[in-house]
C-alpha cells in the first residue's frame, strides 16, 4: 500500500500529559505533513516537514522525521481537552497530491 | 471558515437521483482536489485539478463526474449512486500543489445514499 500507517490507532490521555503519534511510510517523500480533524469536519493543516529536515516546532507541536527509517512522529505537549481529534500524516512525492495515512484518534480527558 | 466552502453540508439522496456537490475557494489557489472519507478507511483521493485541468482520476467510477469551470470552483456531479458511496466528501485546494505547501480543506459534505 502507498498509504502511511499511523500508530497507535487510538490514544487516550489526561489533560496535561504529552501525546505522541507515529507515522510510517514505504516510499520516498518530498515532504510529510500532519493534519488534524475534528469529528465529521474537514482537515486542518498543522505542520509540514521537508525531507531534508529532521525536526520542526510549532507552538505545542513537535514533529520529527527520520527518512532512513521512513517514519515521523508528532508530539503534542501539555495536552488539552480541545486537542481531542483525529490526527493524520500525509506524504507528498513528486506530484501535486497528498497520500494520507489511517489516522490516530486522540482523546484527552479533562 | 477555512476559505474553502463546500455545499451542501449534508445530502440524502436516492440511488436514482442526480445531485451535485459544490466547492468554492477564493484563496488564489491553483489546484483543487476531491477526497472521499469512509468510516474506518483512509482518505481516498478521487480527482485532482490543476489550473482547471484534470491531472488525476484515481480509478473513480463513472457515476462520479467532476467539473472544474475555473480555478475557484469545483463540482462533483453524482448519479445512480450506491449505498456504499455514503461517506464524507472533502474538497481541498492548494497553491502550487502538495510538494511545497499544505492543503486547505473545506468542512465536507456528508452524503447518505438510501
Count of individual beta strands of chain B? 11
Structural class of the helix and strand makeup of chain B? Answer: mainly beta
Cα distance, first to last residue of chain B? 30 Å
SS element count, helices of chain B: 0
Helix/strand order of chain B, N-terminal first: EEEEEEEEEEE
The portion of residues assigned to helices of chain B is under 10%
Give the averaged pLDDT of chain B, no decimals: 92
Query: Sheet with the most strands of chain A?
Result: 6 strands, mixed
Low-confidence stretches of chain B: none
Q: Indicate the overall shape of chain A.
A: globular
Global morphology of chain B: globular
Query: How many distinct beta strands of chain A?
Result: 11
Rg value of chain B: 13 Å
Mean pLDDT of chain A: 92
Helicity range of the residues of chain A? under 10%
% residues in beta strands of chain B: over 45%
H and E string of chain A = EEEEEEEEEEE
Major sheet of chain B, described briefly? Answer: 7 strands, mixed
Radius of gyration of chain A: 13 Å
Tally of helical segments of chain A: 0
What is the straight-line distance between the termini of chain A?
A: 37 Å
Which key features would you list for this structure?
heterodimer; A: 6-stranded mixed β-sheet; 5-stranded antiparallel β-sheet; globular; B: 114 residues; mainly beta; 4-stranded antiparallel β-sheet
Amino acid at each position: 500500500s502507498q498509504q502511511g500507517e499511523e500508530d497507535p490507532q487510538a490514544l487516550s490521555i489526561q489533560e496535561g500529559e504529552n501525546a505522541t503519534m507515529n507515522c510510517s511510510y514505504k516510499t520516498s517523500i518530498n515532504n510529510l505533513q500532519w493534519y488534524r480533524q475534528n469529528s465529521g469536519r474537514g482537515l486542518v493543516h498543522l505542520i509540514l516537514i521537508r525531507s531534508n529536515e529532521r525536526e520542526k516546532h510549532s507552538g505545542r507541536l513537535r514533529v520529527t522525521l527520520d527518512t532512513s527509517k521512513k517514519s515521523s512522529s508528532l508530539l503534542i505537549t501539555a495536552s488539552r481537552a480541545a486537542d481531542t481529534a483525529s490526527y493524520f500524516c500525509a506524504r507528498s512525492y513528486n506530484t501535486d497530491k497528498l497520500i494520507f495515512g489511517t489516522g490516530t484518534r486522540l482523546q484527552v480527558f479533562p | 471558515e477555512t476559505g474553502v466552502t463546500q455545499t451542501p453540508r449534508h445530502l440524502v439522496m436516492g440511488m436514482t437521483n442526480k445531485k451535485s456537490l459544490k466547492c468554492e475557494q477564493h484563496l488564489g489557489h491553483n489546484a483543487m482536489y476531491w477526497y472521499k472519507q469512509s468510516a474506518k478507511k483512509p482518505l481516498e483521493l478521487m480527482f485532482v485539478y490543476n489550473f482547471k485541468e484534470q491531472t488525476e482520476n484515481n480509478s473513480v467510477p463513472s457515476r462520479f463526474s467532476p467539473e472544474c469551470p475555473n480555478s475557484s470552483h469545483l463540482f462533483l456531479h453524482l448519479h445512480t449512486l450506491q449505498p456504499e458511496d455514503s461517506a464524507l466528501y472533502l474538497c481541498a485546494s492548494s497553491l502550487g500543489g502538495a510538494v511545497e505547501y499544505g492543503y486547505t480543506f473545506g468542512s465536507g459534505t456528508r452524503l447518505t445514499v438510501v
